[in-house]
Amino acid sequence: MTNSLKRPKWLWFSVLTCLILLSNYTLYRTTLFDPVPDEAALGSLLDFLVVVPLLAYFLVLRNRYSLKYLGAVILAGYTAAYFIIPARHFPQFPFLPYLILFSEMLFIGLELFIAYKLLTKLPGLLREYRRLSGNNSLFLFNAKRSAEKHLPNHKIGSVFVTEFAMVNYALFSWKKKTSIKHGDSFTYHQKTSVNAVYIMLIHAIAIESIGLHYWLHSWNAIAAYIVLIANIYGILYFLAEINATRLTPFVLTDSHLLLQSGFSKSMYLPLENVKEIMYYDGPEKFSRQEMNDLFDARVPDLIQEKPMLEILLKDPQVYELMYGLKRKASRIVLNVDDPERFYREMLNRLNQK
């Protein structure tokens, strides 16, 4: 089987959607096909409101995510149509606003139902979080475990936890300190330039936002504010990474190893699944094939050095990304500020098994 056939379905969805957007943009926003007949708008609407949602269902949502996400895809398709298709083509479709209004009402109704379910689970979530936080101050880990217990297999719950944790780390964690009552903790960022990387990115987004916002505002105010909101979100994300990296060291207990690398990725590793730990002696960079089976617990660095340690697993272990996304890995590479102590403590606990 060729490498192209092995590419994930979401990549095919992205490529096909980009081709649809590009072809329709070229049709209406360039002079290559002038004059564009009014009937062409019907085909474009079918692209945005039927073809793209069907691609999303068959290539991304089916058997993995709830169908309620399809409402968001349809709404995004209508937004794309609104910006790409000239306004003079819309009067021939008087039913379209009512169709979109119905879709939006259905989508909002589903979201309100989800919010209601979350609120009914909130007391149990808070009780479980308080119990877990008595052992450590790892906010995101405790919030995820609480959600898993009271909202199992709930994708929206995972999204809610991610967004809530990001706001908490970005805005309300600057004066907090790490507290680990059970197990040994190991920092992994003090000898890196990870904070400098995130600060540089925040500065770049802030500077870019000012100029881009004014330029877009002269063209389309709605697009300007959408980009502005996305940039604010990006700044909050990098602020969350800074505090999460500072407040979430690796934690080693007699039964498990918790690897939460900043805000965006983590693994709960039972020690019984560890086959071997060793000092890393491989190439500096990993191939794409290796990355498919690897959990890289290092943080970004201006000069990314080779990993210090490597952990081999008996069976592939799940690790978590943002919004409840999960992958599996049978190898782990990591850096810590005190690799000798980490290696020694890992061996001591593994020998006790």
From TrEMBL:
Keywords: Membrane, Transmembrane, Transmembrane helix. It comes from the Bacteria. The chain crosses the membrane at residues 10-28, 40-60, 67-85, 97-119, 196-216, 222-240. This is Beta-carotene 15,15'-monooxygenase.
